[in-house]
Amino acid sequence: MKAVCLLSGGVDSATALAVARREGFETYTLSFDYRQRHRVELAAAARLSAQLGAREHKVLEIDLRAFGGSALTSDIEVPKSRAREQMSAGIPVTYVPARNTVFLSLALAWAEVLGAFDIFIGVNAVDYSGYPDCRPDFIRAFETLANLATRAGLEGGRGFRIHTPLIELTKAGIIRLGMELGVDFSLSHSCYDPAGTVACGRCDSCLIRRAGFAEAGVQDPVEYAP
Fold first, then answer.
1. Which residues pair with 162 in a beta bridge?
2. Which domains does the chain have, with CATH numbers?
3. Closest CA to 197 of 41, 50, 79
4. Strands 161-163 and 2-6
5. CA 20/CA 194 separation, integer angstroms
6. What is the spatial distance between Cα 107 and Cα 132, in angstroms, rounded to a whole number?
7. Going by C-beta distance under 8 Å and a sequence separation of 6 or more, which residues neighbour residue 147?
8. pLDDT tens, 70-120?
9. In DSSP terms, which residues pair with 163 in a beta bridge?
10. Rounded to the nearest 5 degrees, what angle is found at the Cα of 105, between the Cα atoms of 142 and 3?
11. Considering only CA atoms, which of 7, 37, 31, 34 is closest in space to residue 19?
């Protein structure tokens, strides 16, 4: 069986890809150059795709900077050194409008061409930054849409399934699972505001990642700014 796996280059998407491989899927990885501030993640995605044995890796270009509206796709400052309470209080400025809706739609298109009915995405509803498109309700709604809006969904017999194997795990749990499945996290990248390839260590994504590794009792293998 084939599966399309969304791969950003971070801890979550890499672990979701490893889960797909464990479940016996032939994996096809999809990443996006959407003119994000942290485009260095694309190199991480390519490394992880190769390390985890994907059959094919595609990078699609979409200029979401044309719309802006996010600290990741405009000149809005990325928040730094926030407490966990601040991170979970509302939707942060690093939310990219409709990003997962766009990404899943394009993954669905590729899956239909490949004859695949399974899509993996590393969303998480526990240790996340308040993004509305990481919630179980959104995933269920998109799965319904996928089976209504495609020829394969109507005629294919099986029906599309959106897999979210990490949805109820903590970041520490995701890291432990990834290590069990052989993910090389030294190849990953999570920072929203890196200096070159070096993670800032202070944005929400870095702080959540660092806390996860600490809780898991594992040394984070990536480099952080002093």
1. 119
2. 2-216 (3.40.50.620)
3. 41
4. unpaired
5. 29
6. 19
7. 153, 154, 159, 160
8. 999 999 999 999 988 888 888 999 999 999 999 999 999 999 999 999 999
9. 120
10. 90
11. 7
